[in-house]
Every structure is written in structure tokens, then in C-alpha cells.
């Protein structure tokens, strides 16, 4: 598969504007829902801002959209190869994510990411739509979900409702893992239309 056209910044700009317009909400309302400053949102929507993981997750939560609907609109192919060098990294406080694949079926939407948690770093999320699945490939990862914490090593798996606040912490060296987000078809989304 050829790399996606445009940068994450360009795709995010177009997709934020489309999602906001489709819902009939103002930039001010999106700012309130996402807890992202209006000026920052304006920059992101114009393609001049620098998106972070935290920003994308906040927008996903506020718009109740899968992250991939904000970052890409790839179409399914029968044979797909994604080269690491061809995928733009989306960075946050402690994590670097590379979106690898979006898979749609009649019943669900799946998003696959290469996730790297930097050594000694912690990445927090207030939550977003979907069910989150993580498989650790290398390193030791501390995963906090609500009031629970679990320590994972290579080959270990955790799954949870991603709308719950959660965190990832690399406790022994950097951590490399596969992040898999699952969304049910017709998952309820907030209705932004006036009542």
C-alpha cells in the first residue's frame, strides 16, 4: 500500500472540520466539549497546528468518533503492506503511535497501531470511544484503568473499555506494543443536533 496522501496534520484538519460541520457545532462548542482551546482548534482545523496524542484523543472523545476517522480514510485492500518509514508518528507526553491499519466490517471497525512508550514515561488518557486491546512486544508496561493497575511483560495482553480514564507507563526500559481499538458498528454517538 502506498503511504496515505497528506500528513496527519492535513488529514486531521479536514476531518475535524467535516465532523464538526456534520454535527452542526461551532468551534466554541467543540472547544468546550474537548477541553481544547478555541485558538488551538482553529489552528488544527486550518492545518497549521501541531496535533498530539492527547489532542486527538480529546477530539475523539468529544466527537465520539474512532481515532482513525480523525486521522485517515484509508480504503480496504486485499494485500496491504505498511512500512514503518511511510507512517507519520503521532506523539504524546509518553507515547509514540503509528497508525497502521483501519479495518471495517459490517459489525465493527478496528484500528491497529504500533505503540511505543518512552522509557520512564507515562501517558494518560481521559478516555475515548471503543474497546482498547494492547499486547506488549518488548519491555515492561504498567497499565492503569480506573482504580486498577496491571503490570505486563512481553506477550502479555490487556483489554478494557477505552472510555474509562487510563494510563500507560514504561517501568522497565522503553515498551513496544500493538494497540488495537475496537468499535462496534452503530456504536452510539452523541447527537449534536438541536432538540
Keywords, separated by commas or semicolons:
195 residues; alpha+beta; 434 Repressor (Amino-terminal Domain); Jelly Rolls; 2 domains; eight-stranded antiparallel β-sheet; 8 strands; 25% helix; 36% strand; disordered N terminus
Description:
The chain is of the alpha+beta class. It has 2 domains: 64 residues, 434 Repressor (Amino-terminal Domain) (Orthogonal Bundle); 101 residues, Jelly Rolls (Sandwich), CATH 2.60.120. The chain has 5 helices and 8 strands, in the order H-H-H-H-H-E-E-E-E-E-E-E-E. Strands 1, 2, 3, 4, 5, 6, 7 and 8 form an 8-stranded antiparallel sheet that branches. Helix 1 packs across helix 3. The radius of gyration is 16 Å and the shape is globular. The N terminus and C terminus are likely disordered.
